[in-house]
TrEMBL record:
<dbReference type="InterPro" id="IPR019605">
    <property type="entry name" value="Misato_II_tubulin-like"/>
</dbReference>
<dbReference type="Pfam" id="PF14881">
    <property type="entry name" value="Tubulin_3"/>
</dbReference>
<dbReference type="GO" id="GO:0005739">
    <property type="term" value="C:mitochondrion"/>
</dbReference>
<dbReference type="InterPro" id="IPR049942">
    <property type="entry name" value="DML1/Misato"/>
</dbReference>
<feature type="domain" description="DML1/Misato tubulin">
    <location>
        <begin position="163"/>
        <end position="348"/>
    </location>
</feature>
<dbReference type="Pfam" id="PF10644">
    <property type="entry name" value="Misat_Tub_SegII"/>
</dbReference>
<keyword id="KW-0496">Mitochondrion</keyword>
<protein>
    <recommendedName>
        <fullName>Protein misato homolog 1</fullName>
    </recommendedName>
</protein>
<feature type="domain" description="Misato Segment II tubulin-like">
    <location>
        <begin position="6"/>
        <end position="118"/>
    </location>
</feature>
<comment type="similarity">
    <text>Belongs to the misato family.</text>
</comment>
<dbReference type="GO" id="GO:0007005">
    <property type="term" value="P:mitochondrion organization"/>
</dbReference>
<dbReference type="InterPro" id="IPR029209">
    <property type="entry name" value="DML1/Misato_tubulin"/>
</dbReference>
<keyword id="KW-0963">Cytoplasm</keyword>
<dbReference type="InterPro" id="IPR036525">
    <property type="entry name" value="Tubulin/FtsZ_GTPase_sf"/>
</dbReference>
<comment type="function">
    <text>Involved in the regulation of mitochondrial distribution and morphology. Required for mitochondrial fusion and mitochondrial network formation.</text>
</comment>
Amino acid sequence: MGSLCREVVTLQLGHYSNFVGTHWWNLQDAALTYDPDAPPGELQNDVLFREGQTFGGHITYTPRLIAMDLKGSLQTLRQEGSLYETGKDPTAITWEGNVMVHKESLPTKNSFLLDLDKLDKGEILAEVDFDPTPVPHCSGAVAMETVNSRLERTQKGYRLEGSVRVWSDFLRIHLHPRTISVIHEYNHDGEAHRLEAFGQGEALLQGSVLEDLEDRLHFFIEECDYLQGFQVLCDLADGFSGLGSKVTEMLQDSYGGRGILTWGLAPVSHPDTTPMKELYHLLNYSLGMVHMANNSSFFCPLTLKGGLGRRPTQPPSFPHLNYDPSLWYHSSSVLALALDSITVPYRLRQNSTPMWEFADALAVSGRKVVAAYGALPFPMTQGSSLPDALGDCTDALPWKPLSACPELGDGHCFGQSVTLKGLEGQSLVSQLRPGMQPPTQLHSLDCGEDVLASYINAHYPATPFSVQLVSSPSKLTPPFPQIFSQSLGPQGFLQNQAPTPNKRSCAVSSLPVLTSLQSSPALGPWLSELHRGASALDPRRIAPSFLSQGPELTDFQESLEQLRLLAGCYRNDSGGMMRSSSEEDDDG
C-alpha cells in the first residue's frame, strides 16, 4: 500500500447535502489517475474510495459513502445502482395467475445523463468524432476511466441550469449498492409528509432506519484497516438537523476515538418557502448546531446565505464567479470546491494530519464551532508568482465567508488552518534577478509555504495556524457549471490581457482555491445573534406543530441555553466578547 492510508467514511444527510456531495464526488472522480505507471498524486484516493469486485469479477472503485434522502428524491437514479447487476431481469414474473400492470411515466433524463448512458453502453456520440474503440462492457475503474476521458474530450458545454431537479441529475460516478438509503416515511416533493422539524428527524433514528444505517456503517467500516473518522454533511434547515444530531451522537458513542467532522449545509433559499417555514429553519439551525457541535470533533456551517437569522444580508460576491445563489446546482458547486480544499490536510499521501489532530488544533476550550472562508478562485495572474499574488492582497484578505460569519477584522484568531490548492506550473517564490532588492518581505522568501505563512502571520499576528500548499488543482469536468468570468483562463488563472467582448472563452477546466478554517472571536456574536433570534420565538404560540414529535419544551429551552454558553466560549483574550453592530443597535 505504500504510505499508511487512514480511511474516512462519508455520510450525506439531506437533499442539499447530497447536492454538495455530488459535486464533491465528481471533483474527486475527476482527480483519479488510472495509469499504473503515473507517479502517485499528492492526495491519497483510498482515504475516500474503496476497491470492490462485481459478480462478474470486474474491479470497482466507489466512494466509501452513505447518502440518506427522502422518498421521491432519486428521480432517474436507481437506489441500488448498476455496478453489481446479476444479469437477471428484476421485472421477470413467475406468478401464473392474473396480473394487472400499472404503467407510470418515468422521469426524463437531461442531456448529460443521456450521454453517460450512451458511453456506458459503448455507443459513440454522433456529434463528436470519437476514437472508434468502444467503451468496454464492464463496470468499475477501467470503464469509468474511458467514460471520464471521453466526456472530457467532448468539451460539450452542458447547460443544466434549467434541467437539474435533484442531485442525481448531475452525478457522474457509480455508487455502491450499500450507499443510498431512502427514508420512506417522508416525501421529498409535495406538501404532505414533509420532514420539516428537528424533532421529526430525531424520532426517525430508531427501528428500521437505525438498523439500516448501522448495517451500512458496519459494511464500510469493517473493511477499513486504519479508520480515522467520519465526514458528515448534514442539512441544517429541515428535519435532517435532528436526524444528524442523532447520527453524530451514535457515532460518538460507538466510535468516540475517531474524528467526527460535521459540516452543516444550508442553501441560500428554498423554492417552496413560507414565513412559517422560515421560522422552522431558524429553530432547526439553532438546535442542530448546538447538538451536532456537542457530538462532533468540530462543527462547521457551510452556506452562501448572508446569515442564518431572520434578516440575512446578501450572499457573498466572488470577484471572478458569475453564480446564481438561488440555484442549488450553482451554490452547492461553490461549497464543494471549498470543501475539496479545506479537507486536504487529512487526505495527503505524505505527512497527513489525522482527523482528530486536525480538529483538536481548532476546537480548543469548548469552541467546537468553526467558520470557513474561501477565495474561489485564488486571484493569481497566469505566469506571475505567489509573492506577487499575495502582495496584491495586502490591504484585504482575498477570501469571503462560507459560513455566514464575517470576520471582525481585528487580526485575532484562536486557531486557523489555511490551504492553498492548485498552483501547478506557477512560481511559488519571487523570480528576482541577481542583485535586485526584494520589493516586499514575501519576495525575499525561498519557499512557498514560508511565503503563505508570512502573509497569514502579517494579518493574524501571534495566532496559531497551519498552512498547506498542494500543487494539483481542483479539476472541473462536465457537468460542473461554468460559473466563471471571462477574466479567467482555462486553468483558472487571471489572464494577462482583457477578454475580447462577446467572444466565447474556453471552458475553465481547473481552479486554484485558497481556504481558511477558523476558530475565531467572530463566532461569539454570530452565535449570540442566532441564540437571540431563536429565543425570541415561542414555538407553542407561533409554531405549535414544531414540538409535536419532540423535543420537550424543557429540552428545547436547555438547548438554547447551551447555545448561549457556546457563544460565551469565544470571548477574546482582552476581556469580553466582541460585540456585533446588531447588539449595539439593540442596546440603543
